[in-house]
Amino acid sequence: MEGNIEELKGAIALIGYGLGAVGPGIGIGIVVGNAITAMARQPEMAGTIRATMFLGAALTEALALIGFVLFFIA
Amino acid sequence: MDGLILAAQERHCDVVNEVICAPADVKDWFEFLDPWFTIGPVNFTRISFLMLLAAAVSVALLYFGLRRNRPVPTKFEAAIQSLVEFVRDGIARDIIGPEGAKYVPYLLSIFMLILVGNLFEVTPLINFPITSRMALPIFLSLVTYFIFVIVGFSKNGIHYLTDVAWPKAVPIGLRWLVGLIEVVSTFLLRPITLAIRLFANLVAGHLMLTLLLGSGVTFVLAVGDIGPKAGIGVVWFAVGMIFFAFEIFVAILQAYIFTLLSAVYIQASVHPQH
C-alpha cells in the first residue's frame, strides 16, 4: 500500500511537470519566433534583438524549471 | 560517473529487462557527500573544494589575461579581454546605461564564477557543475537582490517602494492589483526564480548526462550477460555525447543569462520608471 502511494505520487508529479511545461513551451516558441521575424526585418538590429530574446526566453523558461524542481521535491 | 555505475550495480540495475537504468532513489544525488575533513561546524567536501577551485580559476584567468597591456596581445589575452569587453559593453553599458560602469566588477565576477562553475560540468575528470548545488545560485541571487534593493532605495528613497506598489501609469481601479503582483514578483519571486533558473538548468543537464553516459557504460559492461542487447549501450552513449556538446552551450548561455538578468534588475532600480 505504502509503495503504491509513493509510486502514485511520483506519477502525479510527472504529470504536473508535463502540464507545467506546456505554457512555457508555447511562450518560448512565441518569443523566439517573433525574434526571428524581427531579425529578418531588421538585420542591423540583430544584436539587440538577440539579447532581448534570451531575456524573454529565460523569464518564460523559469516556470518550466520550477515545475522540474517541484517534480523532485514531490 | 564511476559512483553512478557502482550505485547502479549495487542496486542490481536490471540490464536484462530495463532499457535505461535509473538509480533507485534520485534523492541520493542531492544529499551531501561524506566530508573530507571537518573544521568546527564546517564540513569540507569535494564540492567545497570545487567551489574554491572555480574561484581560483576565474581569478587566475582574469589575472593572467589582463596583467599586461600590450599593443599586440597573445591569443589567450585577447580572449580574456574580449570576455571582459563583452560584460562591460554588451551587458553593463547596454542594459544599465552610463551608470553601468560602477557595476562592471560585480557583473564580471559573477559571470566568470558561474561560467567556470558551469563548465566544470563538461570538464573531464571533474564532471560536476558546482552551480547544481542550490547553495551557490541562491547565494549569488541574494547578493544581486540586496544590490538592487539597496540601489533602488538609495537612488529613489521611499519612492522606489511606492512606485512599485502604487504604479501611477495604471488606472486607479486596477492599481492595487497590479501593485500587489509587482511587489510579489519584484521582492519575492525575483531572487527565487533567478536562483532556480541556474540551478535547475544545471541539475537537468547533469542528470541527463549521467543517466545517458552512465547507462551506456553499464550496458556495454554487461555484454557478457545480455549478449547483443548490449549494443543499445552504444546508442545511449552516442546520444549522451550529443547532449555533452549541447551542455557546453547551455553552460555558457546560463552564465550569460544570470549576469544579464542581474543587470536588468539593477537597471530597474536605477531607473524605476522604465
Descriptive report:
By secondary structure, chain A is an all-alpha fold. In chain A, 92% of the residues lie in helices and 0% in strands. Chain A contains two helices and no strands. The radius of gyration of chain A is 18 Å and the shape is rod-shaped. Chain B has 274 residues and is an all-alpha fold. Chain B is built from nine helices and two strands. Chain B has a two-stranded antiparallel sheet. In chain B, β1 and β2 form a beta hairpin. In chain B, α4 (104-119) runs antiparallel to α9 (231-270). The chains are: A mainly alpha (74), B mainly alpha (274). At the A-B interface, α2 of A face α3, α7 and α9 of B.
How are the elements arranged and paired?
The complex is a heterodimer of chains A (74) and B (274).
Chain A: H1 2-41, H2 46-73
Chain B: H1 2-10, E1 37-39, E2 42-44, H2 46-66, H3 75-96, H4 104-119, H5 135-156, H6 159-165, H7 172-221, H8 223-226, H9 231-270
Antiparallel strand pairs in B: 1-2
Helix pairs in contact in B: 1-7, 2-3, 2-4, 3-4, 3-9, 4-9, 5-7, 5-9, 7-9
Unreliable spans of chain A are none
Point out poorly predicted stretches of chain B: none
| Biggest sheet overview of chain B | 2 strands, antiparallel
What structural category characterises the helix and strand content of chain B? mainly alpha
**What oligomeric state do these chains adopt?**
heterodimer
- Give the % helix of chain A: over 70%
Biggest sheet architecture of chain A: none
Any idea what the shape of chain A is? rod-shaped
Lateral arrangement of strands in the main beta sheet of chain B:
1-2
Helical stretch tally of chain A = 2
How widely separated are the two ends of chain B? 48 Å
